[in-house]
Amino acid sequence: VILASAVDGLPEVRAGDDLAALIVQALAPERLQDDDVLVLAHKVVSKSEGAVRALGAVVPDARATELAELLGKDARHVQVVLDESRAVRRAERGVLICVTHHGFVCANAGVDASNAGEPDTLTLLPRDPDGSARALRARLRELTGAAPAILVTDSFGRAWRTGQCDIAIGCAGLIALEDWRGRSDTRGRELKATVIATADELAAAADLARSKDAGQPAVLVRGAGRFVTAEDGPGVQPLLRAETEDLFR
Amino acid sequence: VILASAVDGLPEVRAGDDLAALIVQALAPERLQDDDVLVLAHKVVSKSEGAVRALGAVVPDARATELAELLGKDARHVQVVLDESRAVRRAERGVLICVTHHGFVCANAGVDASNAGEPDTLTLLPRDPDGSARALRARLRELTGAAPAILVTDSFGRAWRTGQCDIAIGCAGLIALEDWRGRSDTRGRELKATVIATADELAAAADLARSKDAGQPAVLVRGAGRFVTAEDGPGVQPLLRAETEDLFR
Predict the structure, then answer these.
(1) What pLDDT is attached to residue A113?
(2) CA–CA distances in Å: residue B88 to residues A248, B63, B64, B101
(3) pTM reported for the whole predicted model
(4) Which residues of chain B neighbour A212 with C-beta distances below 8 Å?
């Protein structure tokens, strides 16, 4: 049984806030357990780390200005998106599809104006979301003695399908990919190609437990302890598909 | 709070079986509710509908034979995949990436040997998964008085990311896409591009509740009643992205 519940009562988070302590406080009297998965919408992590940009301080270059005209966007906003990108794959219909410095492919490099907390401030993706997850896990262990898995998420669009799903952009202590290859199905037949993106499925499950307009960036998932490891592990790197091996585009 | 639990004790399902009755029986004494979402791995639906092919009766044509040689696969298996496909996008590394007649893009058109129940039998996707979902819902209403939403799923690979996630291939009584555009975030700022693929997130959440080797094709999801509708609705069609509008490939 998988149980996902949003954490109520988390205050508006600001740069330098001790996010782990705020979560522990919001959860009380409920206590974190070692086999929990704590799922955090990246924005709350970015805000606590100061991964934001004030539009007023951004001076767009020629490329940003040109793209902004093409897309009908604010050139300073486009400049921030470009700063967060390793490559731009598309610039159409008011959106830039970017490869971020982390290697994620998403709209506008994950740079977002909504929920930023301050007007004219953009929230970026955390610089190192796996590192953010590891740091939060260490701090939670320090505060509570328990070390739940940490999963940092964002909502990404997908190829072939409409709508967005929450997916994993960082994690610690979590089996991000569960490999069933070589194991057998119920009839004893070998499962040939079954590798499950458990971290992405957990991100999706957590997203259902909260409302986009209710300010619930943290979701506690119980019953997924088989995906939690004592070691922090490799984070989300195993979830990034090498371009040369991608048959799905 | 979202709660997903696998339905235990479902027997091996065969063509012509009353799947709805088997589920009601397996759930007892637990009763289905109108705000439940019942998630079914497509194989159990396909099997109950006889959507299987015996390899012995398949005669591969020239194209299937050629592709099979290229991929190192059984030509009869390839023929079945081609029969299920509207188009083949890739044929590499032992896999055909196909567009099914329904419009889904997936490996081997969803044709699968594992868990088929009989040796040398392939399980296909249901011919009309939305129709399957509607029929199951009607039959459950008949049997129990309750009409939970029905979601039929399969595990698909994705562009850009490794591993598979369960996604929606058919549904009835479910809001497949939740559109937040025009609504406001916690700061009163308009959410610009937030359309959430709730059906896919529910499919992913349900997949976490079962084990691939435990024969648990049915998962009951509670707490997602806000996505359940009295009308059967348009099924998964809204989840299929028009090729001309797809910036994510």
Answers:
(1) 83
(2) 12, 12, 12, 11
(3) 0.96
(4) 180, 183, 185, 191, 194, 196
